[in-house]
Amino acid sequence: MTDMPSIPTLSLPGGSGRMPKLGLGTWPMRGAECRRAVEAALALGYRHIDTAEMYGNEADIGAALAASALPRDALFVTTKVWHDHLTPSGIRAACEASLGRLRLDHADLYLVHWPSPAMDLDAVLGAMARLKEDGLARAVGVSNFPPGLLRRALGTGAPIACVQVEYHAFLSQERLLALTRPAGVALTAYSPTAKGAGEKDAALQGIARKHGRTPTQVALAWLLEQDGVAAIPKAAGEANQRANLEAASLRLDAEDRAAIAALPKGRRLVDPGIVSDWDA
Ligand SMILES: NC(=O)c1ccc[n+]([C@@H]2O[C@H](COP(=O)([O-])OP(=O)(O)OC[C@H]3O[C@@H](n4cnc5c(N)ncnc54)[C@H](OP(=O)(O)O)[C@@H]3O)[C@@H](O)[C@H]2O)c1
């Protein structure tokens, strides 16, 4: 589609390529719903798709990517290894299986989905680095690492290009951003619309009225304007996909940013009990 706003990209470190700042989240879609959603998004102009082995939808996404006939280098596909596969051989096998389901010979970004208390951090990051060296992933990174663990991971010198965490107008990630920004590491915001909760927030509603947009578009624009930050809203249907894409063209002003900064920032929506202390 030529009339859609273009999606800005950000550079990943180490010549690992450029990641579109806006991607399509795909959890918890599966089967025909997932395939239709990805096909619709690609037709609208999305080029960044987020999945994981745990989502059980990589084969549906692989079918949608193949049907699009888009050139491989136009696409940015992220997938993730589940926390019960965090041994060197487990990571390798999980990555190869994901690529098979996605019908790809490499992922653009391969992430450790959640840390595991049982993992050997150096061994895990070494195995991730080997995926990059061997061409199975253009870039590697981690997800759901609290600040202390991320600091240790970055300190190993592993080629971490991106950190994916919950981040939205109601949850601060200043401590993680203070680690990622100086290192040139990207931060991808998951649950970036706070699962649609912004629609009911008075401050976001007020900003939205001022700009003739929706509160969810305001919440996304606030993320997309931040240095080094990408966002992967999930939207099953074309209307919300289009609205989220159009958020990339919304320019907030200082008054808007001050109102969003003043929102309470402690609302964590995704916490399956794998990380025992988010502040550690
Ligand atoms: N790394 C991790 O551990 C992790 C954890 C959670 C999520 N993720 C990734 O992040 C993605 C997004 O996170 P999420 O799904 O938790 O939260 P989200 O994207 O903030 O919220 C998705 C919800 O918001 C609705 N929505 C989307 N666009 C909207 C719009 N413009 N207006 C109103 N409502 C809208 C969607 O409805 P419709 O579908 O009906 O449009 C859906 O119910 C996931 O799909 C997954 O790929 C990663």
Account of the 3D structure:
The structure is a single chain. With 280 residues, the protein is of the alpha/beta class. The chain has a domain at 19-193 and 229-237: NADP-dependent oxidoreductase domain (TIM Barrel), CATH 3.20.20. It has 10 helices and 10 strands. The chain has helices at 31-44, 58-68, 88-102, 121-133, 147-155, 174-183, 202-211, 215-224, 238-246, 254-261, and strands spanning 9-11, 18-20, 24-25, 48-50, 76-81, 109-112, 140-143, 160-166, 186-190, 229-231. The strands form 2 sheets. Strands 3-4-5-6-7-8-9-10 form an 8-stranded parallel beta sheet. Strand 5 (76-81), helix 3 and strand 6 (109-112) form a beta-alpha-beta unit. Helix 1 runs parallel beside helix 2 (58-68), helix 1 (31-44) packs parallel to helix 9 and helix 3 packs across helix 4. The longest helix is centred in the middle third of the chain and has 15 residues, at 88-102. The structure holds NADP nicotinamide-adenine-dinucleotide phosphate (NAP). NADP nicotinamide-adenine-dinucleotide phosphate is lined by residues 25-27, 50, 113, 143-144, 164, 190-196, 199, 214, 216, 232-237, 240, 243-244, 270.
